Amino acid sequence: MRPTTTPGAPPVDLSEARGVAVDAAEAAGALLSAGVGGPLDARPKGSGGDVVTALDTAAEELIVGRLRAAYPGHRIIAEESGVLDGAPGEEMVWLVDPLDGTNNVAIGMPVYAVGLALCARAEPVLGVVHDPVSGRTWSAVRGKGTLGPEGGPVRLPGRPRPGRDENPVLAWTQGHQVTSDDLVAFALRTAVEKQCARMLQLWAPLVAWTMLARGDIDGIVGYLPEIVDLPAGALVAAEAGAELRRLDGAPYEMGIDRPASELGFVAARPDLLDRLLETTTRIARPGGRFHVAF
Predict the structure, then answer these.
(1) pTM as predicted
(2) What is the torsional sign of CA 23, 111, 220, 168?
(3) Which residue, of 144, 181, 182, 228, has the greatest Cβ tally within 10 A?
(4) For 266-278, how does the pLDDT look when each residue is reduced to its tens digit (9 = 90+)?
(5) Phi, psi of 182 (to 5 degrees)
């Protein structure tokens, strides 16, 4: 991800904000870890197969409370609560995903994460991803790199793991609004899967972003992704060295005010990016249009 515009310095100390966000994410992670082993009342949310539990709302309340205490004027966009207004004219916006992977938790699969992003004038400047299962946290400040669980810098390895030069491991993510009969999603997913050794569908994209930042996987392709969890993970991976483009190959603008048609992405090691784009651009067209032929 290399934005086409560079936002001015945000009116907040990002080092301090990183500490607030990391503490909030890890506290929410501890709450989730303590609750996933108990009975869960998973309720449908919307018509796209998504679910919500009391853990989602409890973790969100914890995070929002901490953000409000530290930054009472900031706006917040939270997964379950929606838009929470801040001070009039406030340009700082937090995105909160208290439990990315609720469907996994509901079926007893321990793959989930907590994500927070801070945006200035709609541009993400801080991202935090916490994995409660491993107890590890990654964070990134725009232009300052990514920090890993031990507090040191994280960089995407210069070379793929042995055997993966021609057979990468990729992840696929799509929004809950994508239906099973979406021909574009089917065409993209099928075409990309033919280009890799394995394609993961984790139901928890924040986990996939941290895997990309570490080099555990080689790329991610996203179709109509969910905006609330996108910036935190994408910033962590991008600041670690991953490259992002739109599905049609155009530069990727991370602004949260972008239309849904421009949020689809290819994220990968720099040496793999063009190869993946050769596949996605056959289906994606400039301006968010798609061409599907069978």
Answers:
(1) 0.93
(2) positive
(3) 228
(4) 999 999 999 999 9
(5) -75, 110
